[in-house]
Amino acid sequence: MNIENRINYLNAVVESQLSPTEVVELATSTPNKIQHVDVRIAPAEFKKNKPMGAIEIPVIELTQRLNELSKDKLIVVSTWGPTCSLAKQASIILLENGYEVVELSGGIALWEEFNFPVEKSTYNLAY
Question: What is the dihedral of CA 16, 19, 23, 25, to 10 degrees?
Fold first, then answer.
């Protein structure tokens, strides 16, 4: 087992995620420097809620909708929970296109568990 590879991997994980508390603190201290994007794939009636102020761009539409995001802001991508890979997929797309991005650690599940503000999901994904 290569310790250096593991340390590099763990550092990359830490650098690529923010906890819900860190996101709220960052949004409060620098509100014009952050853009929260909900990348979940589901109709609004299934998603029900999204983090307050988050833009809904399902990961399958992200490449076509990059113009809705600012390269001058930190993009926080959120998804269902810690086992969902959609935020990682979105992060790759955004990084490849020159955006600064982090994943909301724990996704919307942890966001809601912390009782952070949510609003009704309104985006209807056409299947």
Answer: -130
Reported as type and span, the H/E element at residue 37 is strand 34-38
CATH assignment at residue 93: 3.40.250.10
CA–CA separation, 75 and 82 (whole Å): 18
- The residue type found at 108 is I
Phi and psi dihedrals of 114, rounded to 5? -80, 0
pLDDT in tens, 16-64: 999 999 999 999 999 899 999 999 998 777 888 999 999 999 999 999 9
Angle, CA of 16, 96 and 24, to the nearest 5°: 35
Domain that holds residue 62: 17-120
Displacement of CA 56 from its chain's centroid (Å):
10
- Residues 54 and 38: beta-carbon distance below 8 Å: yes
